[in-house]
Amino acid sequence: SGRHSMLPRQVQRLGRDWIAHWNGSQILTLNSPVSSYMRWAGHYPWASFPLPVPVDFSANWRLPQFFGPWRQFQNSNWQLDNFTQSSCFHLPNPSMKSEKEEPLIKKRRLVGQCDTSTPEEEINFPNQKETLCHCVAQNEGKHSSKKGSIKRHWEYFCQRSRTMKIKDFKNKESDQSNTESEPKFDFTVMSYNILSQNLLEDNSHLYKHCRQRLLMWTYRFPNILQEIKQLDADVLCLQEVQEDHYRTEIKSSLESLGYHCEYKMRTGRKPDGCAICFKTSKFSLISANPVEFFRHDIPLLDRDNVGLVLLLQPRLHCKTNAAICIANTHLLYNPRRGDIKLTQLAMLLAEIASVAPQKDGTFCPIIICGDFNSVPGSPLYRFIKEGKLNYEGLAIGKVSGQEQFPRGQRILSIPIWPKKLGISQNCVYEIKQQQKEENAGEKLQAAKQDNTQEIVIASEKSPSKLQHHFKLSSVYSHYFPETGIPEVTTCHSRSAVTVDYIFYSAANDDTDAQSGAEDSFHGGLKLLGRLALLTEKDLWTVNGLPNENNSSDHLPLLAEFRLIER
């Protein structure tokens, strides 16, 4: 609405984004000098925090002759682009069928792009701890003829002190055997909300920008399956997997690709759920643990969302019996029910805490994937990454940050969930919590007989404080460092936001590890690379999501990890 209401919606959006970015830049320029690690990110129109956002510049950018874990591209006419001085990232131009579509040509520059033969040209950022390298895939042959296809590049991380030469990385398997006495276990994980057909049809107002034939399941599923084949992840965490489609098509198709599949359908009448699928050539299943967030005896928990937690055994020879815990969930959407979201998250974390402990008392490495229906920087997001949240006085509608001006000012109750749920404020099952406290009390009593009265439970000290004991980092940084523009993981007629994440327990030497987190892990995970996300403007060049080639309203997230043993 307003004086520009006659302009197409995407043109209005372009104007608003440009003005916000320009105004933000002017504010920072005029009011104060900007440090080398700060950039104005404008603001998410849906977030509660229109503030300057710190961006991690502890990375160099260069272009190796490697395409990350995209092994299948080598067999599908994909190869590296011949890079030019312009160093632009191109999206193919879709045919213009509607006045609501974006302009034909858009480009986004890559920072520090340089010739692969001259790694000395890498750009040095302050406090650099690692190198971030870019591989850009260029469609060729039959792929280049497709209209509206999205090109995403691979970002590869390597430590500054051990920056690999191109030839070393191309032959990394043989090189590792020469430089390391122990085997390496590298694997890739994808998180992907594939858009349930039932939910698509129930929310058709979100897809008014799409041609009807593109929204049919018979059109969408082959595209989704092809995307999964090409990305070739070792572990798939899928959300909005419709039960009848899973039973008749999805499960058998993935099994034919070498995956073992575990599935948890939502409770009640909801026909979709979460699936975790893993390559049997890489892992064996130790246990599968579904989590239902509905509790008929607790009025707060009247929603049908679910989670799924798997404990996997890597197929490799190593000193110890390493295990990896993989969790997948889809939290409640409702922006005004942050109390339910936090309780669902606590239930998932409690299940992980019961599955992940090893014989020596430490946690095995953990990866949590899913659609959290919460934005970067929100209280729920900070709780996951920081391991603590004081929610006293926090409005329920501000927990997820989905709305800039949430309706209603109801405050979270203290405690959020009733005691009969059986989960403590430390997000563990009460029985486990009591056992831990009893053990701690016995040890302290043996050491200090006269100081037993000093034992105080943390949750009793601070009843409005939630905690968890996982040292979690996010695979993605959520903003493009060269511009401060937000990354997006979902884009439809109403919004373009980040709500999908891959969190992981970082190894102690991982530069993305959270400071101050409890060192209670058996080894950890080193992030080796990730599939880059896109901006909202990038996605509207292909008419948003879903489109002709991308058949969900979410983008797949993909990361490569290395298992680090202690």
Automatic annotation (TrEMBL):
<dbReference type="InterPro" id="IPR050410">
    <property type="entry name" value="CCR4/nocturin_mRNA_transcr"/>
</dbReference>
<dbReference type="InterPro" id="IPR045816">
    <property type="entry name" value="ANGEL2_N"/>
</dbReference>
<dbReference type="Pfam" id="PF03372">
    <property type="entry name" value="Exo_endo_phos"/>
</dbReference>
<protein>
    <submittedName>
        <fullName>ANGE2 protein</fullName>
    </submittedName>
</protein>
<dbReference type="InterPro" id="IPR036691">
    <property type="entry name" value="Endo/exonu/phosph_ase_sf"/>
</dbReference>
<feature type="domain" description="Protein angel homolog 2 N-terminal">
    <location>
        <begin position="6"/>
        <end position="179"/>
    </location>
</feature>
<dbReference type="InterPro" id="IPR005135">
    <property type="entry name" value="Endo/exonuclease/phosphatase"/>
</dbReference>
<dbReference type="Pfam" id="PF19339">
    <property type="entry name" value="ANGEL2_N"/>
</dbReference>
<feature type="domain" description="Endonuclease/exonuclease/phosphatase">
    <location>
        <begin position="190"/>
        <end position="506"/>
    </location>
</feature>
<dbReference type="GO" id="GO:0000175">
    <property type="term" value="F:3'-5'-RNA exonuclease activity"/>
</dbReference>
<dbReference type="GO" id="GO:0070935">
    <property type="term" value="P:3'-UTR-mediated mRNA stabilization"/>
</dbReference>
<dbReference type="GO" id="GO:0003730">
    <property type="term" value="F:mRNA 3'-UTR binding"/>
</dbReference>
